[in-house]
Amino acid sequence: MIQLIYLTILLPFVGFLFNGLLGSKIKNEKVIGIIGSGVIGISFIIAIGAFFETLNLPVEQRKTIVDLFTWLSVGGLNIHFAYQVDQLSLVMALVVTGVGFIIHVYSIGYMHGDKSFWRFFSYLNLFIFAMMNLILADNFLVLFLGWEGVGLCSYLLIGFWYDKKFEKMTTADAGKKAFIVNRIGDFGFLLGMFLIYLTFGSLNFSDVFSKIGVLNISQSVFNFIALFLFIGATGKSAQIPLYIWLPDAMAGPTPVSALIHAATMVTAGVYMVARCSLIYASAPAILTVVAIIGALTAFFAATIGLVQNDIKKVLAYSTVSQLGYMFLALGVGAFSAGIFHVMTHAFFKALLFLAAGSVIHSMHEDQNIQNFGGLRKYMPATAITFLVASLAISGIPPFSGFFSKDEILWKSFANGNVIYWAIGAVTALLTAFYMFRLYFLTFEGNSRFGKDKHPHESPKVMTFPLIALAILAFIGGFIGIPALFSGEGGNAFENWLEPVFKNAQARLAETSAYGHSMEISLMVISVILGVGGIIIARNIYLKKPSIATELAGKFKGLYNLLWNKYFVDEVYDATVVTPIVKTSDSFLWRITDAKIIDGAVNGAAAIVDRVSKNIRKIQTGVAQFYAIIMALGIVLALFWIIMSL
Amino acid sequence: MQIPIEYYLILSAFMFIVGVTGVLTKRNAIIVFMSVELMLNSANLTMITFASYLGSSVGQLFVFFVMTVAAAEAAIGLAIIIAIFRNKLTVNIDEINILKW
What we know:
The structure holds two protein chains of two kinds. By secondary structure, chain A is mainly α. In chain A, 73% of the residues lie in helices and 4% in strands. Chain A contains 26 helices and four strands. Chain A has helices at 6-26, 29-56, 87-110, 117-136, 140-158, 171-200, 205-211, 219-236, 245-248, 254-263, 268-275, 277-281, 284-305, 311-331, 335-362, 380-393, 400-416, 418-443, 460-475, 483-486, 492-508, 516-543, 546-554, 556-563, 568-615, 623-644; strands spanning 64-74, 77-85, 165-166, 169-170. Chain A has a two-stranded antiparallel sheet with strand order 1-2. Chain A has a two-stranded antiparallel sheet with strand order 3-4. By secondary structure, chain B is mainly α. In chain B, 77% of the residues lie in helices and 0% in strands. Chain B has three helices and no strands. The chains are: A mainly alpha, B mainly alpha. The A-B interface holds A 616-617, 619-624, 627-628, 631 and B 20, 23-25, 32, 93-94, 96-101.
């Protein structure tokens, strides 16, 4: 099965071609949907097979390179289309194909009746193809191919309903925003890649990583490589300062938000940093930057999420915040904790989005939570699964989020410092609060929607995926029970990933001075904070909703700041976008392009025109005149030859 | 008594200059045409001279080529002149100057 891993990449591509080329002719939603999700399902089965095959191998042989063919061979640059099957890429592959499959199935119900049903599925399949390239790549260039591919699919899917209005713009504008902001990050990634090639003479992961510590490389080179790669990660994984595209990416259909902008694509940055853990371990200063950015993003995004009223916006900021947690984990050297959170987050955040999609569907595309309320009795399956996911993300034991989040908080305390932990813990409180604000306003309390709406439970093709994800969100954490509880064996998930990160860990060489009692007390604190957030949300939004408006009135300045997302978009508009547009318009277009470039081209033509107007008079049409010129020429030539003899 | 080679060459050069002058100055296309023939024949004379002087047959060979080409050219040239005359009722080449800007 390991050798067949290329099928997990090829099959989605076949699905993309099939639906993309023939979908508009077939028109049968069943055929398109079954093929679209079927190819992903088969990929998932292959990934499971590869996983178990790897599991049966001895630990030191659990890395297989599947070399397909040579892509480029120019001078010293040798790029193979080769895929690396190891512990890390298998975890990611299982998450992507597994969650991807569930979301594909859900989409059959969600996109039912859409005029571009086939286009949706072909884009989704293309996305899985690109994402699998990204996570299975055995060199930076194939990874970059996937990296750009998922960016393209993200753009295509955000603007899927390209003629639909979205806030002050259209969904196509939101797609462009995502694409351009990502391009900034990708530029950093490219620079990092160039620097890697310059330093190590190779783009192959194992080549590069084996040369670290062997070659004599100065610290600043490591710092720059790590920093450039991290800029790429901030773009793709929506971290400060490039997170602004993700909330607008919610313009796309909800399954897209679930698959691309919550579960898989946005974790590509986390995956990439984890994959390059050895580079980051060699650049501790940048690792600190990663941790700080992660902690800040987690906190800021969570505060914005507190006051938003669009159900998908809240989830979007929540995603940004959770991605911040993952980077915090990476930043303190807890790579496996970061990947663990990637996995559990994929479960519960995909579930939250899909459940939100189910709600939006039954509320006729309304997304404002102030217009919901009391939906639990109309759509019980959606409500219960949403509740499971909310409990998971709030870190309530024994839901999956508890294990991964607590692992991160503990590591940020033990390997980092108390400030990281404090920010993380406060964010956990905020997370629990805004998630249950969402839950109570949507599913509990009085109905606030108009008589024209008739909420109803979604069809089975949508609720089954919700239930499947709810089960995963519930039990997903048990594979990573901390050593504290599981005793001798230790954390199973960490043990599984240990060979991937052991070199990086050895380089960081951190020894934790804290004992189990500390770990337990921190755990208790974070659970108390989570429960506290839920209780506060319950007391405000279920019992006395007037408190919310009173608080908003009392802290008007703060409320406005949060409501307007710290005015970051406006600041970026004023400092970056507008100056670029202005200079492009007044200088680059009107002067450089219109005057200088066009002037040079038109001027050259004008000169030729004027000169030839005069010169053409030589052409008299009298043959004898030409003959005289010719004779004179010959005479001159002869004369010159004779003289030079 | 052998005639010195210079005599031949001077005669040939004279014929050539007469030909060139004719081509450049005469208005009638027929005379221009004849002048061209004169130039060709002056070249022929030079080649024969050198062939005899150097004891080589290459020059004589070339003269045959030139004569063949000249015959063909004469036929085509005259045909063109007749065609022009039919169109313009003149063979004065300064009146045939439509090939200009």
